[in-house]
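Support case: succinic acid complex. Customer-provided input:
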Amino acid sequence: MMNLSPATPGLTANSPLFRTKSFINGAWVDALSAETFTVTNPATGEVIASVADLGQADVRAAIEAAHVAWPAYRDLTAKERSALLRNWFTLILEHKEELATLMTMECGKVLTETRGEVAYGASFIEWFAEEAKRIYGDVIPANTNDKRLVVIKQSIGVVAAITPWNFPLAMITRKAGPALAAGSPVIVKPPSETPLTALAMTYLAEKAGFPPGVFNTVTTSKNAEIGLELCENSKVRKLSFTGSTATGKLLMRQCAANLTKVSLELGGNAPFIVFDDADIDAAVTGAMASKFRNSGQTCVCVNRLYVHDAVYDEFVRKFSDAVTALRVGNGLDSTNQQGPLINEKGLSKVKHHLEDALAKGARIRVGGQALDGLFFQPTVLIDVTDEMIITREEVFGPVAPIARFTSEAEVIQLANNTPYGLAAYFYSKDVSRCWRVAEALEYGMVGINEGLVSTEVAPFGGIKESGMGREGSKYGMDYYLEIKYLCFGGIS
Ligand code: SIN
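Agent response - structure generated as follows:
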């Protein structure tokens, strides 16, 4: 079904990476019901695949297989688990072009970015292959002479990873990497928009040599039914989710049934502040990189810009010029810089936010029009105020709303006036201000004179309604481990 023209880069029609069945207990399987769902290219509207549409019974089988595989897998030495991850890392990089092309076809993200995502996603596997060998415990000075107190860290058990369409590859590796390193089998549930990248990654995990049952991928369009099973099945000991705050809250409520541990990476409402002492050119570069990454469809994308009155005109002019120059089109043409929105719902949301802002007094400086299909012009809105929906909710699209401010205290208050707390950004050349503002912003991640903060070596995650837990970095492994305290008595 996949329609590959000779010009399609990196992927051939009979590539072994192109898979449409799910993977359970080391076997590629159809749904017990034999049902399938279709995957559409958001840039063209073409159906590119029919994929197995699993139900509750299929997912139970995956959980059972993972549970059975757990003891032998956790008993591998750290070095053995590390070697498996390292194999997977190497294979991912070897298939960079195929993975990038597949991703562009199913999520619309332009090739330059999907190539970047393969490298970014692989970096988590490399990082956790290294961290696998450093799951250290502690020896605690005892409270009496006849005791010895020791802390060990052990694998948490079966992990369910529910991943989003906006990073079809990297959100799998950021969750599966630490789980597999810690000795936990995983069940990946990719979104119905982008199962093909997940299945290609699963194929590479199979080739890397993970034992049957250790890596499972369940494709489905029945999100509510499968989400409930992953939350309420007592053999799942940890659920990691990236997606909307509303769904995160629902999953957390469902996980309460067995007190299943959760990591949640949820929505944001990132402010981007340009102070009057900022390097304006650098601020424009940072704002472009953050706002228009994946056409505005990341949780850490700039959602609202606050620019000091004294530099407002200069910033708006330079930023608008840069936005006007963006090339929009099918991401498979590597000269394009902005792809489509993921679906009609995403496009409608952008239009709704824009209409609301215009009705409340905002003006369009650049763009503002829907293009063919799911494409939308990169847009700059000025005269924006905090009464507009676009400054209060995640727009998840290529629209940059700009507001003015006059004092540091005022802009900190505006930036923090949201239930979300994922990422924030600001530009200033004053070192004291940099510390002051960084400490005052109520966010899990702050970019200071920097628009891109994501890396495998630093902790990614939010506070308030943006979630809980951290992914990547030395902290990322802790969420997949249980701490056990051993008290040795009778020592003479
Ligand atoms: C996300 O949008 O969910 C992840 C973004 C990132 O890892 O930079």
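The first strand starts at residue 22 and ends at 24.

Case will auto-close in a few days if no follow-up is received.
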